[in-house]
Structures are given as C-alpha cells and as structure tokens.
Amino acid sequence: MELFHSHFHRLVRYLDRLSGDPELASDLAQETFVKLHRRGALPDNPEAWLITVAMNLFRNARSTAARRRRLLTVTRVESSLGDPAPGPAQLLESVDEAERVRAAIHRLGERERQLLLLRAEGYGYRELAAALGLNEASVGTLLARAKRAFRESYQGSADAP
Amino acid sequence: MHLDEERIQRLLHDELGSTAAETKLHLERCVACRELVDGAREEERRIFGLLSQMDHPIPALDPRILLADQRPSGGGWGRRAAAVILSAAIAGTAYALPGSPLPGALDRLLGIGGGRDSVPSTRTERNSTPPAGIAVPAENGLVIRLVTEGENAVAIVELTEDEEVVVRAVGGNATFTSDSGRLTVRSSGPVRLEIRIPRAAPSVEVLAGSTRVFHKHDRRQVSETPADSMGRFVIPLHSPAP
Predict the structure, then answer these.
(1) Which of A38, A97, A119 is the mutation pick for testing B, counting most B CBs within 10 A?
(2) pTM
(3) Is 0.90 exceeded by the ipTM?
(4) Cβ distance of B53 and A119 shorter than 8 Å
(5) pLDDT in tens, chain B (242 residues)
(6) φ and ψ of A80, to 5 deg
(7) What Å distances lie between residue B134 and B128, B131, B183, B199, B211, CA to CA?
(8) Count of C-beta atoms within a 10 Å radius of residue B69
C-alpha cells in the first residue's frame, strides 16, 4: 500500500514523459501494480522491479503501436492528401516548448533518457543501477553525461533554423 | 584533490554515503568546487524544470480499469489483488475528491454486494496490512516445510502458470527462510498459507512439520486432501504435539 502511494504518481509521470500519452502512462502504471500484486510477494528491490516492469510494458506498447502504424500507413497518407494545410497557429503550436523538450529527450540515447527521466522522479542510485543494469558506482557520472547530452540536444534544437 | 563528476552528482542527490563528511569538508575549503556544485545544482534545476513542461495532469485513477483486468480470473487472488489496489486507490483519490462516490462503486464492482458496511470480511481484509510472502525459483525442485503454532492454520495449494513458487501468509505471523531447494515457513496464529506452484515445476513437496501433505511430481499431484472444485488443495495444519 505504501509502495503504491509513493510510486504510482512517479511511475505515471515517468511514463507520461516517455510516451507523451497520459492515458497510456496511467494504464501502464496500473498494470505494473497489478503485476506486483499478482506476483504475491514483494521483490528484493521493489522500486527497481516496478521501474523494470513499467519499462518493459512501455516497450511492448510501443512496438504494438509501431506495428499498427505500419498497417495504417497507406490509409493515413491517403487521408492526409485531403487535409487542409496547417495554419500559422498550428505551426507555432507544433514547435512549442513541450515539443522541443520532448524532441530533445528523444534524441538522447536510451540509457541517458531513462536515467534522466527516472532521476527526475527522485529514484535513488541503487534503483537506477538495478533497473538499468548499471554499475552503481558510476551512476553519478552517467547522470552528468546525460544532463550534458540533454542540454546540447535542447540547445541544438533552439539554434536550428 | 577536487571533486569529480561522480561526487558532485552524489552530493546533489544525497548519495555520498561514507564519503559525505570528507566531501563536505573539502567543499568548505575549495571555492572552485563550490562553484562547480552550485553550477551543477542550477543546471539540474533548469533541466528538471524543462522536463516538467512535458507533463500532463495526472488523470484520476480509475480502478474500474484494474477491475476489468482482474475480474475474468474470478479467483480469490485476482479479487484480493483488486481489493488491495482498490483500497489504495480509494485512499489515494478519496483525499483529492472528498465525498467521492468511488468507494461504494468499487464495492459494487468488486461484486461484494450490498452497502459498504454490510461486508465485514472484505473490510477486514482491506484494513489489514499486506500479506507477507516470498517467491522462490523451483526449476530444480523445492521442499516447502511448514511449521505452525496455534490452531486454525490452513495451507491452500494451487497450481499456476507463473514461473516461481509463491507463498503468502494471510493473517497471523509468518517468517520465511529459503535455502537452495528448501523453503521453511514458520507461522503462528490463525494463518492462511497460500502456496502457488508453477505447473512447470518438476518437483515440489510440501511438508507439515515432517509429514508430507502435498507432492507435485511432473504432472502428478498427490495429497491426502482431495482438490476442491477450483482445483485447490485446502490442507488443515496442526501444531506439533508438545
């Protein structure tokens, strides 16, 4: 119960930032907790277990979505031909701050992205190391690199014409 | 020697451990490192601030989604898992939404019928602390020894599609000791020991004290207690004679 209270929102926010889809994030976080309760017993490192399961669920959901997108490609192209051209307001929206941040995050490598998003939710070095398969002694260094990479990625998108 | 990146990050995140005192002492004397730490702190604040720009409001938890997943199983485990999560959900959302009709709706959805006050057994379960339990691998065979003190203890053995043997103690007190190929569960009070054994496990033996009460060997299951209508073996446990 305590675990649910302290981790549910963190997991949702992490998955939301990762996916950009708040409903998917909420569903996956719930599914993660259902799996924990189905398991029946607490794992050795519950936080790391929750992160790992949530990450796997997200990967599965993403690959399923990618398959669906491939199947729908033809339909989407056809329908887009009939769409009106985006207006100036829509164009501005598409480059708003949130999108820039999201784009910067997604240009990072998988490990850097995960490290940054999970640390932003306050997960400790032990949990980060266990969930991401890292040496705990170098988590700080990897985090510093991830931040640097993010800053460069973000600034790069700002400087882009 | 100046602080390296690892130490600066650990300092920011309170992860220094045994080197905390030494690091802080160095910082008091070293202006250059203090500036580095301040810069790193400011950078992190800015980056995490930017990340929060992506956030959407976290939707209120809708436990019906959980229930929809849990209901088809129909078994006690699914229902109990739902009840535990739902009680968390109630606690979590009820604070934010005073007067919410959610708890009553959940009871109805759980199929426990009637008003909330008319289901004392379920309420007791919700209010109890989470059951203690352990999960152990069983690829190479496992012997589970149950040592109980007091009356009204029972073991419920069922086969699952899981990969590990899971033993939970509901009610009473229990301690779990596992070793290679062995698991000992000591319990006292009116405990219900729920033992879930993977169908794929080659050999799992359950002993009450020194008496074998259940044995699964490949596909065969042997117990003096016949399986109930749900395929579970409900085995009463007795304290060893004084």
Answers:
(1) A38
(2) 0.52
(3) no
(4) no
(5) 799 999 999 999 999 999 999 999 999 999 999 999 999 999 999 999 999 988 887 765 644 444 444 443 433 444 444 434 444 343 333 333 333 333 333 333 333 333 333 322 222 233 334 457 788 888 888 999 999 887 778 899 998 887 888 888 887 778 888 777 889 898 888 888 989 999 889 999 999 988 899 999 888 888 888 888 778 888 988 766 55
(6) -70, -25
(7) 18, 10, 9, 18, 22
(8) 17
